[in-house]
């Protein structure tokens, strides 16, 4: 039971809204709320007015700055190709990161120390290094050491896979560990082997529990493709903001449009995550506690208990 | 290894910049996050709507885009001026972007913390006649804050690593320096990379351990 959820549940009565944090307003409070609403609205409108006036002074509201967006050729030459590059890098990286995460997440649970410890070291290392360093390393390291040229696409995917794969490995590990012990004990009891227990009992239940956390990590992955602009990968920020600005001098309008595109895609993905969470909570197929979407694994060195913390409070 | 030792002063300078970016942005985003969470649970629908829109918008945009928006949009187009010194100017523009971005995560962490405070606490507070602000300030937020120390630590660690995105607007932090060193000393790419990775491990591991310890120590016993 929680303060905020009650507030949301009672949204059906908007006029006399109450929450744990405040009572249903009486006549005086209602009058005060009206006054405060007017005051804060004026302040917010003032801020908006200030922003708009300043943008107007710098010519960012001029029709010709926004006109490119009504021209289909702007979309076909700049925004859509950038979008395709962003989505293809994110798509390839997501698939590889899921494989990486599954392999290393299971390896970290291995009974053999010679598998468990190196896998743990790899995961913790790549979680601690900033993504941009990994991308620069991919670009320069491969050409310096192996003598091959790395495309910016490959460098972006390399960084995304290692970093997000490591986070996913932690999610997989937490998901498998959230399946109650009785499940694997019963499986061993009926004579299944270790690999069978993992494949037939633990993973199917863990996947249901992990789904929301995985989807929200994929949102992070998609957002991180934007780092590609720093290593000259022609993704959405490069082509939709920088190149558009170079052609039309409309940086702020372009940034707003590209931000809206990212927000739409990511909110759709987040919606998917909450849908998965609701569904897996409803279904009785898995005995594992659902890992909430906001419950990213703790950073390296952090206490473990946070992760298996049940989201249902 | 020689390449790392020779360039140690420059590397330490870059890491010092990372620490400064992290510390200042952490303070600003904590304050902004508390303001946002107060807006999101407030009795006024206007403030709730604005807070929700801000958090959803910022959380779903890439930091790189916000960084470019701050650096080029606010800095160049809107000519927001902090200093005539270009490096100081870019430093503060990077701080704006980092603070705006991470404030939304702080807000969400605190909101989930408010969820852990038992109903009875807020009800008792209302029963003795506390107003919404008093309730939030004296009863709810102190308990919520103590419940989300560990997630806040994770955000701080993410912030430490995200300072590298300031490279997008040319702040001379670790990622740009590493790239320059790669170009200068092409034959020792791996030692340089490992050196920078160790630098980040040194920054993030103690932070993680400290916040883990703090979270346990400050946990509200229920």
From TrEMBL, chain A:
Compartment(s) of residence: Cell membrane
Protein name as annotated: Amino acid ABC transporter permease
Membrane topology: Multi-pass membrane protein
GO molecular function list: transmembrane transporter activity
Keyword entries, A-Z: Cell membrane, Membrane, Transmembrane, Transmembrane helix, Transport
Organism: Bailinhaonella thermotolerans
Similarity field: Belongs to the binding-protein-dependent transport system permease family.
Main location as per UniProt: membrane
UniProt-listed InterPro entries: AA_ABC_transptr_permease_3TM, ArtM/GltK/GlnP/TcyL/YhdX-like, MetI-like, MetI-like_sf
Annotated segments matching region Disordered: 286-313
Superkingdom of origin organism: Bacteria
Domain ABC transmembrane type-1: 83-273
Stretches that traverse the bilayer: 34-55, 75-107, 119-138, 144-163, 201-222, 251-276
Any single biological process term in GO: amino acid transport
Entry's Gene Ontology cellular component terms: ATP-binding cassette (ABC) transporter complex
UniProtKB/TrEMBL annotation, chain B:
Domain of life: Bacteria
Protein's name in the database: Amino acid ABC transporter permease
Family: Belongs to the binding-protein-dependent transport system permease family. HisMQ subfamily.
One GO molecular-function entry: transmembrane transporter activity
Record membrane topology: Multi-pass membrane protein
Keyword presence, Transport: yes
Organism: Bailinhaonella thermotolerans
SUPFAM superfamilies, sorted: MetI-like
Keyword ATP-binding part of the UniProt annotation: no
Organismal lineage: Bacteria, Bacillati, Actinomycetota, Actinomycetes, Streptosporangiales
Keywords: Amino-acid transport, Cell membrane, Membrane, Transmembrane, Transmembrane helix, Transport
Domain ABC transmembrane type-1 as annotated: residue spans: 15-211
């Amino acid at each position: 039971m929680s303060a905020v959820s009650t507030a949301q549940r009672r949204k059906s009565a908007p006029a006399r809204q109450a929450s744990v944090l405040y009572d249903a307003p009486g006549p005086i409070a209602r009058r005060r709320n009206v006054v405060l609403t007017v005051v804060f609205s004026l302040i917010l409108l003032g801020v908006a007015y200030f922003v708009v006036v300043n943008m107007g002074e710098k010519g960012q509201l001029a029709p010709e700055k926004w006109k490119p967006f009504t021209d289909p050729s702007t979309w076909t030459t700049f925004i859509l190709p950038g979008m395709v590059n962003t989505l293809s890098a994110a798509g390839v990286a997501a698939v590889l990161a899921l494989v990486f995460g599954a392999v290393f997440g299971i390896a970290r649970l291995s009974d053999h120390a010679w598998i468990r410890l190196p896998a743990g070291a790899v995961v913790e290392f790549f979680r601690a290094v900033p993504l941009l360093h990994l991308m620069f390393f991919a670009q320069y390291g491969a050409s310096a050491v192996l003598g091959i040229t790395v495309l910016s696409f490959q460098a972006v995917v390399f960084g995304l896979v290692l970093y997000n794969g490591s986070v996913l490995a932690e999610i997989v590990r937490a998901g498998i560990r959230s399946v109650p012990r009785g499940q694997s004990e019963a499986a061993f009891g009926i004579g299944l082997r270790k690999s069978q227990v993992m494949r037939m009992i633990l993973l199917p239940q863990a996947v249901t529990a992990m789904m929301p956390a995985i989807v929200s990590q994929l949102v992070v992955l998609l957002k991180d493709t934007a780092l590609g602009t720093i290593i000259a990968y022609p993704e959405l920020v490069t082509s939709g903001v920088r190149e558009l600005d170079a052609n039309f001098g409309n940086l702020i309008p372009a940034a707003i449009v590209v931000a809206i595109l990212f927000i739409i895609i990511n909110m759709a993905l987040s919606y998917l995550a909450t849908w998965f969470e609701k569904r897996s909570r409803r279904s009785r197929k898995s005995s594992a506690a659902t890992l909430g979407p906001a419950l990213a694994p703790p950073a390296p060195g952090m206490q473990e208990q946070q992760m298996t913390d049940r989201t249902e409070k | 290894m020689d390449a790392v030792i020779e360039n140690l002063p420059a590397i330490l300078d870059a890491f010092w910049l990372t620490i400064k970016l992290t510390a200042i942005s952490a303070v600003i985003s904590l304050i902004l996050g508390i303001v946002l969470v107060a807006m999101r649970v407030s009795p006024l629908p206007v403030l709730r709507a604005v807070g929700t829109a801000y958090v959803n918008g910022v959380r779903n945009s890439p930091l790189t885009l916000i960084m470019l928006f701050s650096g080029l949009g606010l800095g160049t187009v809107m000519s927001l001026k902090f200093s005539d010194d270009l490096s100081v100017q870019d430093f503060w523009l990077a701080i704006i972007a980092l603070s705006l971005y991470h404030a939304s995560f702080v807000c969400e962490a605190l909101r989930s913390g408010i969820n852990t405070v038992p109903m009875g606490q807020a009800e008792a507070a209302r029963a003795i006649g506390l107003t919404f602000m008093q309730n939030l300030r004296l009863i709810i937020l102190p308990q919520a804050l103590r419940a989300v120390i560990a997630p806040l630590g994770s955000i701080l660690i993410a912030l430490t690593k995200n300072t590298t995105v300031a490279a997008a607007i040319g702040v001379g932090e670790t990622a740009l320096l590493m790239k320059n060193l790669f170009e200068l000393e092409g034959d020792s790419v791996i030692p340089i990379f490992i050196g920078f990775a160790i630098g980040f491990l040194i920054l993030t591991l103690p932070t993680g351990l400290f916040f883990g310890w703090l979270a346990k120590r400050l946990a509200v016993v229920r």
